[in-house]
Automatic annotation (TrEMBL):
The keyword Transferase applies. Keywords: Nucleotidyltransferase, Transferase. Its EC number is 2.7.7.7. This is DNA polymerase eta protein.
Length: 642
């Protein structure tokens, strides 16, 4: 659903940079003898020469299109060079292209806030760079302006008969232009320089759109390709949108666009101008109605996010026609391949970028043999992500089983799987070092609240069963419970030689203790890990399956006096709603953590640099005497001085 965001104060200049026939360029850089030849990249497939996924501009001249198969492309362009996408684990391996995309991102990001939008496109917020140029070296003061900038397409610029480059030079150097257009002129020069730099350093060409917001910049970058740039002046917006088919606008390609066409008779984005905002809101809701009213006027407040790395990692494979998977063992085989790749990629991300993924999602495209027309879709399923190939494989398999049960229904019809994918999402940074551990665990909690809460796992992902409620309520319960313990760090008692227990007392903490805010969050991590693990299990169990109450409390036992809390856990499992749980937990005051009961495999799932520290922390007997309070994070978990 589109999200309406009010336009920010002040002028902005945003560029959308899109690589030209990207995979083809990557292949041509690898094999320079392909340069200048009609070339396409095909996805490995024995059927009719495989499907084309990228088509070079030389091949496009012959009418070769991405929708074609290799054999069809050869018919229209007999000399076409068909390059197979690299294959690993029986499926396309896009690592080469991903890394090539990163090379470009690292060049572009030097000039402004940069958002990597896909494998080959980025948004850049050039407002600061353009303002700086305007104040220090405005275009009219420049001795030379790169030809690349002079070749810009300026929408709405009338031809004055002096040749287009001269025309553009005049536009770039106008001193009577308003501030907004002057910023655009500066940005056009900056983008041209960046594109030259990308070309020189990577050998790749790209195209760009330059405008006052992301939406217009994206539209513009596709208008003149390859290796060109297009500028959208404010005065040209109305004409640009007047004839733009609704389906071409981002977010209008699906149901919303179809509804605009069929219900309101809107064909072009500009047709929306005739509808008052109230009418659009009445029909599509306040948010979407406001968004539609604004985009009709070229207004969009969407910010360029600062993101150089992908938002998620996904591995998928299609099994078209007769290749559809029809047995659990074949699904398992492919899930294992996909999960192996996913695991490798999230591990690389963790090692290289210190980022950790929190959610694993399985999507499948499925059909039933005896069903005519559109039946129930295979539901996508998610669960908290556990690191390690075997664990991801195990969880993905359980997600699949759960989805399949919902899909086939009680009749146990024969089924086929036409596509499978696994995705790791909700990727958060983890700062390294001791001080960062608490932040990391905080993150885990935040994640727990949002992703394990109803927001993160929506009902598309979870069938409405008691397990859903549990997923929504348990982490809320834990976090509610633990917030106070973070603020009021506790005494830790060694209750016996064999059985070390953390007793976290949140009653009447002193201000001094309150200063240690958040560091106790390491405990929350274990709770979250516990609940995470349970969530996986819960998600797979049927609604009527017994709920693992005692297990889930194995290392986070309630104080025996806390009958109320114990009851709550049970209520929770009995589907009580989260509000009730939250309210009542406010009264709960004490916790015990039994170190012996911590599952060591939980530690294995932590980032390496943190593992070491946590292991040290768990070796209490040796270190209790050795470490002084106040030296590091372990201080908070050692027995208090009597
Ligand atoms: P696009 O940017 O959509 O296209 P492109 O870069 O090939 O060509 P253009 O110059 O028109 O922008 O996609 C980027 C790459 O993503 C593309 O080179 C191959 C890959 N891709 C697929 O694998 N499958 C697809 O369906 C699409 C659209 C792209």
């Amino acid at each position: 659903m589109p999200i309406h965001r009010p336009a920010p104060q002040g002028s902005r200049v945003i560029a959308h940079v899109d690589m030209d026939c990207f995979y083809v360029q990557v292949e041509q850089r690898k094999k320079p003898e392909l340069r200048g030849l009609p070339t396409a990249v095909v996805q490995y497939n024995a059927w009719k020469g495989g499907g084309l996924i990228a088509v070079g501009y030389e091949a496009r001249k012959f009418g070769v299109k991405r929708s074609m198969r290799g054999d069809e492309a050869k018919e229209v362009c007999p000399d076409i060079q068909l390059i197979q996408v690299p294959v690993a684990r029986g499926k396309a391996d896009l690592k080469l292209y991903r890394e090539a995309g990163s090379e470009v991102v690292s060049i572009l990001s030097a000039k402004g806030r940069c958002e990597r939008a896909s494998i080959d496109e980025v948004y850049l917020d050039l407002t600061d760079a353009a303002e700086l140029m305007l104040s220090e070296a405005p275009p009219e003061t420049l001795e030379t302006i790169e030809k690349e900038a002079l070749k810009s397409h300026i929408l709405g610029l009338a031809d004055d008969g002096k040749g287009s480059e001269e025309n553009v030079r005049r536009w770039l150097c106008r001193d009577d232009a308003d501030h907004e257009d002057k910023l655009l002129a500066c940005a056009a020069i900056i983008v041209a320089q960046l594109r030259i730099q990308v070309m020189e350093e990577t050998q790749f060409t790209c195209s760009a759109g330059i405008a006052h917001n992301k939406m217009l910049a994206k539209l513009a970058s596709a208008m003149h390709k390859p290796a060109q740039q297009t500028v959208v002046q404010t005065s040209a917006v109305k004409d640009l949108l007047a004839s733009l088919p609704v389906k071409k606008m981002k977010q209008l390609g699906g149901k919303l666009g179809s509804s605009l066409q069929s219900d309101l008779g809107v064909k072009a984005v500009g047709d929306l101008l005739q509808f008052p905002v109230e009418k659009l809101q009445e029909r599509y809701g306040t948010n979407t109605g406001s968004w539609l009213w604004n985009i009709a006027r070229g207004i969009s407040g969407e910010e360029v996010e600062s993101r150089l790395l992908p938002k998620s990692h996904g591995c998928g494979k299609t099994f078209p026609g007769p290749q559809a998977l029809k047995s659990i063992s074949s699904v398992e085989h492919w899930l294992n391949q996909l999960c192996e790749e996913l695991s490798e990629r999230i591990q690389d991300d963790l090692d290289q970028n210190k980022r950790i993924a929190h959610t694993l999602t399985l999507h499948a495209g499925a059909f039933k043999y005896n069903e005519k027309g559109l039946g129930r879709k295979f539901p996508s399923k998610s669960c908290p992500l556990r690191y390690g190939t075997a664990k991801i494989q195990e969880d993905a398999k359980k997600l699949f089983d759960s989805g399949l049960r919902d899909f086939v229904g009680p009749h146990n019809d024969r089924w086929g799987i036409a596509s499978l994918s696994v995705t790791a999402s909700k990727i958060l940074d983890i700062p390294s070092g001791t001080s960062s551990i608490s932040s990391f665990f905080q993150d885990k909690d935040c994640h727990s609240l949002s992703s394990s809460g109803c927001d993160g796992f929506n009902n598309d992902h979870f069938p409405p069963s008691p397990s859903v409620n549990k997923i929504c309520t348990r982490p809320v319960y834990h976090v509610q419970q633990l917030r106070p313990s973070c603020e009021e760090i506790c005494d830790v008692h060694e209750t016996s030689q064999q059985n070390k227990t953390f007793n976290i007392d949140v009653r009447g903490a002193s201000p001094r203790k309150r200063k240690r805010k958040e560091l106790g969050s390491i405990l929350r991590y274990f709770q979250v890990s516990d609940s995470s693990t349970k969530q996986v299990v819960d998600e797979f169990t049927q609604a009527d399956a017994p709920l693992p109450t005692s297990d889930s409390e194995s290392y986070m036992e309630p104080d025996p006096s806390e009958h109320q809390r114990s009851n709550l856990v049970r209520n929770d499992n009995n589907d009580e709603n989260s509000t009730h749980v939250n309210e009542t937990t406010q009264t709960s005051t004490a916790w015990h953590l039994n170190v012996e009961d911590v599952d060591p495999s939980v530690i294995d799932e932590l980032p390496l640099e943190i593992q070491r520290e946590v292991r040290g922390w768990l070796c209490l007997p040796k270190r209790v005497q050795a470490t002084k309070r106040g030296s590091d994070i372990t201080q908070y978990f050692f027995p208090a001085k009597k």
